[in-house]
Amino acid sequence: MDKAPKIEVCSYCSGFDVNELKNKGKVKISCIGKCSKHNPDLNGKVYGFLNGVFTVCDTKEEFFEKIDKLEPFQLNSNENPLVDAFLEHLEKWRDEHEKLRELCLACQLTEELKWGQPCYTLNNKNVVIIGGFKNYIALTFFKGALLKDKDRMLVQQTESVQAGRQLRFTSVEEISERETMIKAYIEESIEIEKAGLKVPVEKKAEIPIPDELQIKFHDDPAFKNAFYALTPGRQRGYIFYFNGAKKSETRISRIEKCMDKIFHGLGIDD
């Protein structure tokens, strides 16, 4: 448990030199999802999150005075040190990961690290997982197909995915703007899990493995082992992709280009 105040400010938008805060408490300096560029009322103000509460002051002195009066901030006891370590070394989508993490923990879910990503569970049942992709970060609901989705925000990653659905974001500002909606989706997912509801699953037709992939498995047993170590969904994603090529040489080329990702346990869209 952390015994220092928690201070979150943006080095570009807070209205003062954030280095002055180094001895004030547990300071996080990054985009906080609040910016005078998008919020004209913040122009000329000094602002940031103090112990999780967004605080706006007219002067730096007033802001610092509020910091000096802060009580020690108790970290969420559900925070998992494995996820702390994961985020510490994350280069892309770090701020977005942390904001989505905050929202998941606020809903009293248990935090774990599964498949190398922050995953949130209820009574050992997976509810939602955070994952960074090339062009977006996603909050994936394991039983998303059962959500009402009145805002029509959920994305079905591929046609072969039956249960999971994603909320996708490209910035921490977007996450902050949709915070209420995100929490509502998480809370609904929790109620679905508590009720023991299950997604009706259609039996999937067997997807033929292309000859070119079979040959690669025969020639490279290590690659075969890496491929079958992937989740079934990732395996199907690759097979769909390889089968999508009409010419044999194109299928071979696709397989060669994907080998490194497969050896690293990644899916076609990771």
TrEMBL record:
Q: Give every YdhG-like domain span.
A: 93-190
* Entries under SUPFAM superfamilies matching the protein: YdhG-like
Task: Tell me any Pfam family this protein matches.
Answer: OmdA
Which InterPro entries does UniProt cross-reference here?
Answer: YdhG-like
Protein known as: Uncharacterized protein YdeI (YjbR/CyaY-like superfamily)
